[in-house]
Each structure stands twice: as C-alpha cells, then as structure tokens.
Design brief:
single chain; alpha/beta; Alpha-Beta Plaits; Rossmann fold; 18 helices
Length: about 750
Amino acid sequence: MGDLQSSLDKIIFSSSEFNSLELEKSSLEKIVASHQEKVDMLHAQLQGRLAFDFADPVRGFDRSKVKGVVARLITVKNDKYATALEVAAGGKLYQVVVDEAIVGKALLERGQLKRRVTIIPLDKIQGRRVSSSTCEEASSVAGKFGSLASAAIELVGFHEELRNAVEYVFGATLVVDEANAANKVCDLLKTRTVTLEGDVYDPSGTISGGSKNNLGTTLSKLSELDKASTALSQELAHLERVQSRLTSMQTMAKKHEDLNGKLELAVAELAAVEKHISQTTYGMLCEKVEVMSKELKEAEAEMKDMQTEKEVKWDLHRSLKEREAELTKKREDKLKDIEARIKNGKENASKASKKALEASSRSQTLSLELAELQKEVLSSKAALEVAKKSVLDANADEAKLLVELKDITVRFDEAKAMMKGLENEIKRCSSELKALADEKETLEKQKETMKLEMKKSAIQVAKYEKDRSSAERGIANMLQKHVWIETEKEVFGVPGSDYDFEKANPVEMSIKLKSLKDEQSTLAKKINKKVMGMLEKTEGECTELIRKRKVISNDKMKIEAFVEELDVKKKAELERTWKKVNQDFGSIFSTLLPGTSAKLEPPEGMQPWEGLEVRVAFGNVWKQSLTELSGGQRSLLALSLILSLLLFKPAPMYILDEVDAALDLSHTQNIGNMLKTHFSQSQFIVVSLKEGMFNNANVIFRTKFIDGVSTVTRTIGTRESFASQEKSPARKRSFFRRPSEKEN
C-alpha cells in the first residue's frame, strides 16, 4: 500500500481541476452553440439584402478587385446612429464598390448577376465632404438647442482605400440628434441633415420622415453580427484551450483513477485485517496495553503537575505560618500588657477602697477593651485568609504577565524588523519617485513643445482651409458668371487648343483683346444687343431644363432602386413567412390527423411569392387534389392552415365556436392536445358540446336552462390537464365553455 501511495503522490493530477474543466467545456459548448445560432440567424437575416453573388467575367479574374456591398465595408462606431446613417446612405448602402470602372463594366456584362446593382468604381467616383468649418458651425448651432451635430462620415469606420466611396455615400450629410436643431442647421448651412429618428431635412425644402419600421436594422444587425462573430471566435478559442487541456489530462486521469482504485482496495483489505486482528486475544491485549500506556502517561503528567503545585502550596504555607507566628506573638504581648495593667488596677483597688467605684468603672472599660482586642484578633484571622487568597491571585497574575511579556517581546522584535524593512522600502520608493519626477518634468517639456507644434500646424491648416474656401468661392463665381467655362474646361491646358496656356503670349493676347473690344464696339452699333441677352436667357433656361431633367432621371433611378429593394425585401419576407407557416401547418395537421402530412408548396415553375397550393399525404402517398378528402378531413385541413397562420404572429387570446361540430370524438381530443402543444403562450375560449374537448380544459363553464332561468356552473378541468398547467407556471391557462342545453 505504501508503494501505491507513493506512486499516486508522484502523479501530478487534480481531479477537481479535471472535473471543473469538463464542466467548463460543457458550459462553453452551450455558449458556442448559442453564439453560433445567433451568428447564423443574423447572417440569414442579412443574406437577402447584402448578398452579392457573381461569376468571374474572365478566366483568372482577381476577385479582390470587388470590395463588396457598402454596408459590409463600414462599421458603425455607435449603435444609436445606425438609423440616421442608414437613412443618410439610402439606396447607396446596398451598392457595390470595385477598384476600377472597367471591373464594374465587366461584372455588369459577363458577371451573371442575379439582381440589378449599382457599381461604385473607386478610380472614377468623386465624393463630396462637408468642410470642417461647416461641421464646426453646425456643432455651434446644434449646441444652442442642447444637441450634437457630426458629419455622417465621422460616425463610421472604414479602410482608407475606400474613402472616395464612403465620401460619396456619407460625405454630404450631417447627423444632428434633435429635430429642431437639424432643421435650423439645414436652413443656415444649406446642408442635408438627418436626425437620430431618421427624419431628413433637405436644403431644397423637402422633409422626409414618418414610419420607423425596419429603419436602421441593417447597420445595427451588421454591428450585432460583428460583435457576435467576435464573441464566437473568443469562445471557440477558449473551448479549444480547454479541450486541449482535457486531452492532455485524460491519460493522467486514467492512470490516477487506476492507482486510486488499487489504493482504495488495499486500504479496504488492510482495514479488514486490522478488524480481524482486533477481535483476537492478541488484539484485545494490545488495545488494553495502549489504553494503560495512555493512562500511565496521563498519570505521570498529572503527578508532575501536582508535585509542582505541592511545592508552591508548601511555600505559601510556610509564609503564612511565619505571618501567623508573628501575629500570635504580638497578641500575646498585648495580652500580657493588659494583664499587668489589670493586676495593677486590682492592687490599686485594694489599696484605695475609696476609689472602688472608679476602679469598677475602669474595670468595665478594660473589659470593653478586651472585647475589642478579641474582635481585632478575629479580624486579623480574616485578614490572614484574605492575604492568602491575594497571594494566590498575585501568583496567577504574575504568570499571565510573564506570558504577555514574552508575546509583547516577540511582537516588538517583529515590528522592529518590519520597520527596518519599511525604511529600506521608503528609501527605494523615494529614489524611484525622484527619478519619476525627473522623467515627468522631461515629458512635460516635450508636451509643451508638442502643443506649440500642434498650434502652429492648426494655424497652417486653418490658413490652407481658408485659402481653399476662397479658391472654391472664386471658382464658383467664375463658373456662375461665365457659363462657357463648364463646357470648355476639358480643353484647358491642352496643347494646340485655344486654351494652350504655355504657347499663349499675355502681351499679344492683351493687344488682341483690345482690338477685339474695338471691333465689338464698332459692331455694336449695327447689331441688336438685346438679341444676345435673349440668347443667354434662352441658353440659361435650356441649361436649367437639362439640370431638371437630370434631377428627375436621378430621382427615377433612386425610386426604381428603392422599388427593387422593396421587392427583394417583400420576396424575402414572403419566403420566410412561407417556411414558418409551412412548418407549423404540417406539424398541426399531423397532430390533428395522425399518420398524415401536409405542406404548402409553389406550383411547378413558380416561386413561393407567386403562389402556393396545399398538398396532403396519407402515409407516403400524396393526394392529387383536395376533392379526394372527406368533409371532416377538409375541416381539419382548413383549421390547421388558419391556426398555422395565426401561430406566425400569436395573439394572447382566441375564441373558437364549435370548430369540432363536424368531427368525431378522437379528432376533438386531438384538437385539444394540439392547442396545448402549439399555443402554450395563448389563452383559448372554446365553445364545444363534446367531451373530448373538455378533457383538455383547465376550467369548464357549463350553462343550463333550469326553471326558466339560465344558470352557469364553474368546475376545474381534469387532474391531468390541471397538473400539466401547474408544472409550467408561465403558461396561460385555457378556458373552455359549454353552450346552453335546454332541459325538457
């Protein structure tokens, strides 16, 4: 057994750690399953909107050039802005980003796309962004309303190579928390603003808002999907570590379990042998010897204690004897003195009879003194007893004080050593503190230098921004004043053109300009100037009409994209509803009519959103038409379809009026079981005349017509139904009511 114990001690294994790891593994598996389910659910919800599948337009096509849908390329920094950002992006959120325009063209022509998409090529797209001065002014205006204003692009995270696309989607929009502040910012800065609730204020004067159903769900669910995926990865890594640890411990666990079993068997055998030996004469004698040896040791220890106590008591006895002898001697001396005085008094009394009365009085006085002395002797004896007790108490107190003195001495030495260590620690900390103070001073100087550099940079940036704004305003004024610049700007600086700035000589151009002006003044006398004004007016109107047509075309494209998006959402929602209703429809019908199955499926060549038909099977044989069913089977089929539709969005209460009228008792019983199984969170009031329905009721109201008066009696349902409801306190109980029965 000693060898087994030593072998067991050599094994480095902790059963508690192994069990805790197994429990942790089981818990982690549940958590991973929960996270995986959540990720799959979110991925399925987003797949219909954000899926972008395409075939390679050419062999060896580099798919990294297709970045993906905008919604998947950004991250929302704060979930409360999800609705505002989704509204700000609009249909652009579902557009696809590619590296080059040629890639987008190839995808549209040979990518076999399954739906219409809008391509954003990074090399062609030109995004707009609200200037920093506009953002600062917007924040100032919003602050007066107790609100916050930010550029939409600052509220999303993205890769730097996608900046052009993100600026194209979010760059021209401000997000303002409150509606009044958003309206004011839009009016003052002529910039499109969006509130947290999704209301849009456009500089053109339009305001969008209203229903908030499904607003912000895409970005918020994407953010939730990222968090869930991160949590899933972390838990999977943790589970892998635990699994690895368990795998490494399983071998040692098996070896430890084998040795432990052998050790327990050896211990049990040893206990049985010891028990057998203890029942023999030798065992009884050994036990008796052990008891006697223990009693002998206790007696010797007690004898030593008594010997010590005896010496202490004898010392006390001797000291008390000496005290008693001293007090006795004093008492005898005093008695002798008193006797001598009495003797003298008697002699005086005999000699002086005349003074007998005085002597008698003195004798009485002396008697009283004698009585007082006797009392004093008794008091001395009592004082002696008190003194003995005081000596005992003083000895006990002295022993306690000696113990306390030793304890205090030890504590003093420990405190002294601790104080010395603390003094050394204080010296070390002081030196470290001094070094840290020097480092802090150096860092403070660096900080001040960096602040100064930052201020200089900020001034330069502000100057550059001011110059850029001035240049933009100058360009805008020139574009507004000279319409021809817009049409001719493509040939500016082109060699050989009229706008070749390198070959043009400013002096010659000035002379030519002067001659042209002289010629213009000469011709002005012969030409009607109003015609040019009318021409410019007509051209302006034409330009405005072209602009309006472009706006209308853009709006048309947006509306078509939105309609297409709604169509996709409608199809996805119809398909989801079909799958859920089809599953519940089959489950309910098989419960009502065992041995059968039912389903909703689209006709051949059609999609679920285009139409569905009901199919019924008895066993494995599917019926070709519902006309093959009996009237009761059709009733059950219709009831199953209605209840499966209701189960898609359950209500808290339902009222069913004799839905089992055309059914036999077994089908009625199945209806009750189905209601308890599939509608556990709803309450039913069922009007019925059949006993099979009552067996599933929690409470029954019976109405009868007695003596010309309608009476209602309330009874509790069957024990089985009531017990099943009591086991599930969260389940709402069903109520069943029986219609009135006239008694003849």
